[in-house]
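fyi for ur records
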Amino acid sequence: IHIVPYGIDQGLAPSVAVAVLSTIGGCSIIGRISLGSAYDLLGAKRSLMICFALLLVSFILLQAITEPRLLFLFAVIYGIAHGGFFAIVSPSVADYFGTRSHGAIFGTVFFAGTLGGTIGPLLAGSIFDRTGNYEIAVMLLSGFAILGLLLASRLRPLTIANQ
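which gave:
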């Protein structure tokens, strides 16, 4: 939601800022296909760690960008990570929790993600309104990406007794 106004604030023409958003969408498709395929080779833990690492790199880049056109690089990395999560969440839930309650657990995970996707832009907008920039919002997102990466690194495989 905020990437287009952010791009305009950074000096991009409105049509170019919209192209940054479109790049995220296009690269999300690439992430779904490539990281979904990688999941089949690497498994849940490594795939989740790759997605969280890419997400973190994109947020670090977003904080470091000094040239507005580099928002396209952010968009590529972020889009791939975003799409990757969509492809790997369901099989990851099955790998770590089994399939007996897959629907309920996956629904809960998806609800949490949707809730974050609803609250996050409101919070980011509020932060921007109070501070005049997105620095704190991007730092919070970076913190969540670090937390996700750390938690993913601690995942242990499902044992037969737990199924």
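The two ends are 40 Å apart (CA to CA). thats all i got for now
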